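User: Predict Diaminopimelate epimerase's structure from this.
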Amino acid sequence: MSQSRRGQGPLLNFTKMHGLGNDFMVVDAISQPFRLRPDTIRELADRHFGIGFDQLLVVEPPGLPDVDFRYRIFNSDGSEVEQCGNGARCFARFVRDQRLTNKKVIRVQTAKGVIELRVGRAGMVTVDMGVPELNPPAIPFAADRRKDIYTVEVGGDTVELSAVSMGNPHGVLLVDNVDTAPVGELGPRLENHPRFPARANIGFLQVIDRTHARLRVFERGSGETMACGSGACAAVVAGCLRGLLDSRVEVELKGGHLVIEWQGEGSPVMMEGPTASVFEGQLRLPGDPSPRRRKSARQGDAKSGTNRKNHRQRQPVTSRP
Ligand SMILES: N[C@H](CCC[C@H](N)C(=O)O)C(=O)O
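Assistant:
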């Protein structure tokens, strides 16, 4: 955290967790006030100057009658997103470790719908990731009609990919060998391709046989990660649509294996995998302006709007009242 931003604010308790090396800072925003600006999230995500994580996961009180918690997800670039599969498994373990619930079936509200987390033995968690969305406008992906395989022009090359939403957008390419796939070169170009107006997570899928696959994912807002749960789900959907995979697939990612099941269109994708809790920490957040400065700022605002720039500052991320 930059020297000038060193915290004078409140202490924030957090837990560092991962799902197959896809790592998270997890915050209970029920038992403690939570307020982080996107630029602070970026600083905390830095693996040299901050805590270091792929995503920040926030536990909030439920916003709907039939759910247990609200689940918010922020990429390391500070962007808030709709879904994180590996994070959902860690979320389930976190809320039980923190005694926020003793349920083994936990319903959580995400930005794109409700998902169900089932806690198993030895840190294993199964997630009902919901029904994949294949209609281009809902992904979102620019196409005149829905196809199983799209042709996309990128930087003078033509690639074929499938487009799937698991609540978050994914493009999935078929490759002969993930070890030699152009993840670093094609990943960022497709992540930011204009046909993905909300950007996208880009999966590179190698089919071993009808029940085994290998996958690397260049994630939207975080770059290549050791594993991507929603990416594994999207990749199995894409492989099934292409007639290459059966309904139950073991997906090998850099950080380990997930089991993905999908019975076909209209049915939910089920993901099973491990969770790990690494350490607990405390962080002193950047202080707000001192009461005196804050008062003068208010006066400034009240007086002449001289602090108008303050109104333009991007709103901090705060837990819902
Ligand atoms: N980068 C993703 C969010 C995290 C997804 C991934 N970590 C997972 O396990 O699903 C996005 O912007 O949609």
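The pocket of 2,6-diaminopimelic acid is lined by residues 22, 54-55, 73, 75, 81, 84-87, 168, 201, 219-222, 225, 228-231 (CB under 6 Å).
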